[in-house]
Amino acid sequence: MVGKNCFAIASDRRLGVQLQTVATDFQRVFKIHGKLYIGLSGLASDAQTLYQRLVFKHKLYQLREERDMKPETFASLVSSMLYEKRFGPYFCQPIIAGLGQDDEPFICTMDCIGAKELAKDFVVSGTASESLYGACESMYKPNMEPEELFETISQALLSSVDRDCLSGWGGYVLIVTPTEVQERILKGRMD
Amino acid sequence: PPHFPQIPHPNPRNPSLAAADPSADLPAAAEMSRRYDSRTTIFSPEGRLYQVEYAMEAIGNAGSALGILAADGVVLVGEKKVTSKLLQSSRSAEKMYKIDSHLACAVAGIMSDANILINTARLHAQRYALSYQEPIPVEQLVQSLCDTKQGYTQFGGLRPFGVSFLFAGWDKNHGFQLYMSDPSGNYGGWKAAAVGANSQAAQSMLKQDYKDGMTREEAVALALKVLSKTMDSTSLTADKLELAEVFVQPGTGEVQYQVCSPDAMGKLLAKAGLTQPAPEA
Question: CB-hemisphere CA count at 13 Å for A42?
């Protein structure tokens, strides 16, 4: 979600195989650099592999260009990596959030073969995405300060995952401003 | 091993002899050694690889670089050979290159050759990190780069790389390390090493003054002192030198590679009593 000169990215913490819950502390939001994060929902193995490959590419980019990648550029990179596997895709839906030029918040999502979708307000992905769309649409308002943004995204997340049996077991929220990053763990319905 | 095209090589003394076999007809003894110059892939009768030695000659004319292993880090100092005021000052370093977050190198020799090898090193380090999800041990990276360099001395008919490297890094197995490698593909772990112009003189000075367990500060001072004595330039100014250190950040425990800014460089030189007035432009 985009706020005033900041953004928030959040995920649930469940890792499951259909009805079996395997982990309740699964990391789905990954850091690329201080002002760029990617959330990967879908197949856990693909999420981890995709993240590792992105770190590979970003590290080389950093070494050659001597700077961090801009979020827009990174989104294009993810999109092209996904499309490379057009006929044998990564079963992942990424959410990219970062602070770009002049610390302007940037968010986007794409489908599992790289169709980018930019948004000015919020982007969602995962098994509870339909609930999330509804919750975000009703709770979101533009230019929220970090504290209010945190409240909004947390409520939207928890209320949506409660309606989805495959999501839940708490939440993980990251608020990123130009000066600091706040990480918080949410305790929701643990089921 | 890398695949190199087999380039048919005519004998430069007698072009009509295509790919002459040196062991065939025997010319006059004085001319004999010249026949072994042209190909990297053969030994001379005295058991030397001339092309490799010529590559080292090329490095002996390049700007020098020094590396010193300290107890709490590794220090790399380089001399910038070309300092014309027409040169567009770029942010990036000329002698020091980061290879991964925990590994860096200083180069001496032909810069274009160095760029190729540095790219190879960076890719290799990332591929290792992708497979094993941990940073590449320093010696392994050095070894793989040296394997590449060795390939160019044994097959393909391509000339060796005209670069010597000083690698500085940290890994959890052996802590801080310093390695020196040359065009032959040989490498060694060193406590202090020098490459480039006047490296022999620098090396013997380092041998005298190096003490085990020196701190990074002492190592920097020693490096600057040695360089000031071996460098050709009459005045040692901050814009002729590059300094980089690999150390562990005290707060986070992360390995850091830091290049000294020109201002900090100036202060260090002043502290070591080495600044001299810049010549009138």
Answer: 22
On whether residue A191 sits in a domain, the answer given is: no
Q: Is A53 on the interface with B (CB under 8 A)?
A: yes
CATH of the domain at A59: 3.60.20.10
ipTM confidence score: 0.85
**Residue B272 DSSP one-character state:** T
Q: Report the length, in residues, of chain B.
A: 281
Q: Which of B199, B171, B194 is nearest to B100 (CA)?
A: B171
In chain A, residues with a C-beta closer than 8 Å to the C-beta of B100 are 59, 63
Is the residue at A38 inside a domain? yes
Contact, A154 vs A139, CB < 8 A?
A: no
Residues B216, B70: Cα–Cα separation, whole Å: 5
> Is there a contact between B127 and A56 if contact means CB atoms under 8 Å apart?
yes
pTM: 0.85
To probe the interface with B, which of A63, A64, A65, A66 has the most B CB atoms within 10 Å?
A63
Structural domain boundaries enclosing A14:
2-186
The helix (H) or strand (E) run that includes residue B67 is: strand B65-70
Residue of higher predicted confidence among B84 and A16: A16
Chain A closest-CA separation from residue B11 CA (Å): 41
B128 Cα to chain A: minimum distance (Å): 10
Asked if the Cβ–Cβ distance from B130 to A63 is below 8 Å, we say no
Tokens for B65? 């670089």
Give the distance from residue B95's alpha carbon to the nearest chain A alpha carbon, in angstroms.
Answer: 15
- For position B14, what pLDDT does the model report? 47
In chain B, what are the domain boundaries?
51-80+96-272
A 10 A CB-CB count for B152 gives 24
CB contact under 8 A, A52 and B123: no
Confidence class for position B280, pLDDT limits 50, 70, 90: very low
Task: Check CB contact of A67 with chain B, cutoff 8 Å.
Answer: no
Query: For chain A, how many structural domains are there in total?
Result: 1
User: Please, are residues A63 and A91 in contact by the beta-carbon 8 Å criterion?
Assistant: no
User: CB contact, 8 Å: A56 with chain B?
Assistant: yes
Residue A111 falls within a domain, yes or no? yes
For residue A57, the chain B residue with the least C-alpha distance is B126
Determine whether the interchain pair A60/B130 forms a contact, defined as Cβ–Cβ distance below 8 Å: no
User: Between 3.60.20.10, 3.30.420.10, 3.40.50.300, 3.40.190.10, what CATH number should domain B51-80+96-272 receive?
Assistant: 3.60.20.10
